[in-house]
Amino acid sequence: MAAPIHKRLRRLVSRISELEDRYLPSTFSLTGRYSRRQRDDTKAFLLLVHAELESYFEDRVRKIAEKSADRYRRSGFCTPVLSRLILYYHAFAQKKFEPVSQNVMQKAMNLYLDRVQANNGIKEKDLLGLFLPLGISHQAMDTQLVTACNQLGQKRGEFAHASFKTHQQIDPKTERDNIRNNILPELRKLERVLRKLS
Prior knowledge:
- The chain is elongated and about 65 Å long.
- It contains 7 helices and no strands.
- By secondary structure, it is mainly alpha-helical.
């Protein structure tokens, strides 16, 4: 029996469905011909989906980190996630290792949560910056998800920083299918990894 979908992922899926309804054509062209407005709406769709994915990733890692800190505050138990965040803090700050304490835990949390707050994307380097400190290795991250997020991140950069004339033609169905087939199903797999950390 499949595990229930995490409420934050459910919210993301619902939001992307709303964006599809609002910005993508109700029927797709068999010849790939779309008006300029339809192509602009597709770009808006992709920019908003990028923002929703970025928020989803940040919310999930923040919640996992905060849960590990709360457990330490309540019981003094240092979870594997918190241990990794403390190692990350010592490595990043180039500090000598100190025993785990409220003070060290808080410094580690502050460093990591500042990193999450400063995140600005969903490309591979962004995902690694969010997930590696929690103990999710590069190998544990699905290649299809990373590739699709890289492509979406690259397009988002092109759309946000270039004039209309420099944009390549965009196909609404191709973009919708990429998100439906290469990102959303892979997030369910990622949730199984994240659930083990919680």
